[in-house]
Design goal:
Layout: H1 2-21, H2 24-28, E1 29-37, E2 43-51, E3 58-65, H3 85-90, E4 93-98, H4 126-140, E5 144-153, H5 155-162, E6 171-177, E7 189-190, E8 193-194, H6 202-206, H7 228-235, H8 250-257, H9 263-268, E9 280-286, H10 294-306, E10 311-316, E11 329-332, E12 335-339, H11 341-359, E13 371-375, E14 380-384, E15 393-399, E16 405-406, E17 414-419, H12 446-449, E18 455-458, E19 466-480, E20 486-494, E21 515-524, E22 543-556, E23 561-567, E24 596-601, E25 605-611
Parallel strand pairs: 3-4, 3-5, 5-6, 6-9, 9-10, 10-13
Antiparallel strand pairs: 1-2, 2-4, 7-8, 11-12, 13-14, 15-16, 15-25, 17-24, 18-23, 19-22, 19-24, 19-25, 20-21, 20-23
């Protein structure tokens, strides 16, 4: 009851604040809608919010989006504009643009449009569209100071990254946030496995429109249930999903036709092009983002290694886009991380970054750390001069016998489990039909640890804190009775028996002995050597499979335990591997799905990057 009262108070408080500010944009900004013509003649619909106070000049902050710059109509105003409320009230010219082929813009949409280096004539890509837009804005929008910034979250984050390529001289700063880096490793795929939980989003990206429109031209399929697990289990092979998306859905056809990391996907990745970047960059991500972890880390790393610009990275205890929502209490699912974390980011990190590079005011760049990372175990921000921190040391744990995670290589041995495609391991106890999953990134994993098709390896109770900072490499030695298999790894923080509940903790759970998932990743075994060249397993042959888990920044506290879980299914987050090798899993038949026995050998190991504890 106390939890529910707390939530009611918080909701009332938030809605009261919103009500006070709902007319701020209308009262302080003029709105203009226009078409900006690109070099090939295609016109892109653009919305401009300019401060009513014309006594001074303002920088331009711009977001390009495939998700619409609604509301349409010069008398229709957003309740909030810009990256955050502080910047909105500081005074910026805020611009939104429907990208080529989406909503009110002309042209043909291309999902993750490939970058064209050394363009000639009227060749276009998202870089040229951004350049042409900025060029028009600085020449035609009154009272601008000639400096432009870009930002965006998720797909708009991809367009923010894109703005850095062949950047316009007026572009001085960009903040790609939860930015897609490559659709073969973000959102729809993880290491070659297909993320079935994002299947419904295929409707958003797959249907082409024929003319500018203010209304959605796509519909989500009607499924008749909220039980995501049962729905996909009943559907069976991926080929049976064709009845929901026919050939008119271009993206569904592309997914099916390109199961491997071929030129189709490689050309759409933006990571490989991030070199010689000039504008200042602040990459932002959430350490519990189920959609886009690969993109932000790879974007920051590639710019850092191949450019000489100002480049910084911020990761907080957020799910997808949480930093743009001002919540008093920051929690992911059952786990609480602290108060006013997003407010702090918006006020003390994001706003000073843009103010410095676009207004020449506020903090010096020396005041910004290279990496501003939240420790999700210690519940505090940490500043580093580089990421991963220079001080990290490699520490190896072995998957030993008796469910032990140990620091010394064990004697020969192994554990086996039966993987049944008809009874896959759920990725969460709470599975419903959602657009994208969120809370499972910190979900209690006790339910999985109690299954016979999940192997568990655990340390003794820790005598001292242990801080992990950087990526995790799972170097497995495995075998299977079949010719195909997926391998999923989970890193888990096991709480002590007397851990206290949070107000956010679900009623049926207790935080005592809670198995908090810190990070997970899956590898489609056929791609263990090359994402472009799938290959079967040889039955019963010991084989190396390496799985890279995205970076963490987490302190396992004294009194906690570190646990590793190994399994072959995380359904329906990831589709089911038939466990019989077929050239294309999207074309697998019911008969291809076979029960198999998988083995994990004791010379399998997990390599962590550990920060030494200060005395």
């Amino acid at each position: 009851m106390k939890k529910r009262i707390l939530w009611i108070v918080l909701v009332v408080f938030v809605h009261t604040i919103w009500a006070q500010d709902e007319d701020y944009v209308r009262d302080n900004y003029d709105k203009t809608e226009t078409y900006i013509t690109m070099r090939d003649g295609v016109r892109l619909f653009t919305t401009i919010y300019a401060p009513k106070d014309t006594s001074k000049e303002y920088p331009i902050i711009m977001q390009r989006t495939p998700y619409s710059c609604k509301p349409y109509g010069e008398d229709q105003f957003r309740s909030k504009i810009g990256p955050n409320e502080f910047m909105m009230k500081d005074g910026y010219i805020v611009v939104y643009q429907d990208v080529r082929g989406r909503w009110m813009s002309e042209g043909v949409y291309d999902n993750m449009r490939a970058y064209i280096p050394n363009k000639t004539g009227d060749q276009t890509d998202e870089a040229s569209d951004t350049y042409d837009t900025i060029d028009w804005l600085v020449e035609n929008v009154p009272n601008n100071n000639g400096k432009v910034g870009t930002w965006g979250i998720s797909y708009p984050g991809f367009y923010a990254t894109y703005s850095l390529l062949d950047a316009h001289p007026a572009l001085k700063a960009s903040s790609p946030q939860a930015c897609i880096g490559d659709f073969y490793f973000d959102d729809f795929h993880h290491n070659g496995s297909y993320l079935l939980s994002y299947w419904r989003a295929t409707a958003v990206f797959g249907y082409d429109k024929t003319e500018p429109t203010k209304d959605a031209w796509y519909d989500f399929p009607e499924l008749g249930t909220e039980d995501q697990y049962q729905f996909f289990l009943d559907v069976g092979p991926l080929s049976n999903l064709d009845k929901y998306y026919d050939e008119s859905n271009v993206f569904w056809q592309q997914l099916k036709e390109h199961p491997n990391y071929d030129e189709f996907w490689r050309s759409r990745g933006i990571i490989q092009h991030l070199e010689d970047i000039k504008p200042a960059v602040m990459v932002v991500g959430g350490l519990f983002d189920a959609e886009d972890l690969y993109g932000p880390f790879e974007t920051y790393e590639n710019i850092e290694n191949r450019s000489d610009n100002y480049n910084t990275v911020v990761f907080g205890p957020w799910s997808h886009g949480d930093w743009a929502r001002t919540k008093k209490r920051q929690a992911i699912g059952n786990v609480f991380f602290g108060e006013d974390i997003s407010l702090h980011f918006q006020r003390d990190i994001e706003t000073p970054f843009f103010n410095h590079f676009l207004k020449g005011s506020g903090s010096n760049t020396t005041d910004f750390p290279e990496a501003y990372m939240y420790d999700t175990g210690a519940r505090e921000w940490k500043k580093y001069t580089e990421w991963p921190p220079k001080a990290v040391q490699n520490k190896t744990f072995w998957l030993g016998g008796n469910q032990d995670l140990i620091s010394e290589k064990p004697a020969n041995g192994s554990e086996s489990f039966i993987s049944d495609p008809k009874k896959p391991v759920p990725y969460s106890e709470d599975i419903k039909m959602v657009f994208t999953p969120r809370k499972f990134m910190t979900d209690d994993q006790r339910f999985a640890a109690r299954r016979t098709d999940v192997l568990v390896y655990e340390t003794e109770v820790l005598d001292d804190d242990m801080t992990l900072a950087g990526d995790i490499m799972a170097k497995l030695q495995v075998a299977t009775t079949g010719t195909a298999a997926d391998w999923a790894i989970k890193l888990i923080d096991v709480y002590p028996p007397d851990a206290e509940d949070y107000p956010e903790t679900q009623e049926y759970l207790k935080m005592g002995n809670y198995h908090m998932m810190v990070r997970s990743e899956v590898m489609r075994g056929r791609f263990r050597n090359d994402f472009s060249k799938p290959e079967p397993f040889e039955p019963n042959k010991k084989t190396s499979v390496t799985v890279k888990l995205q970076d963490v920044h987490h302190t396992f506290k004294k009194g906690h335990k570190i646990q590793i879980q190994v399994q072959s299914t995380m359904f329906p987050y990831v589709d089911i591997n038939p466990q019989t090798y077929v050239p294309n899993i999207f074309e697998a038949s019911e008969d291809d799905f076979k029960k198999q026995t998988h083995t994990v050998y004791h010379d399998s190991k997990i390599e962590f990057s550990i920060l030494p504890q200060k005395n």
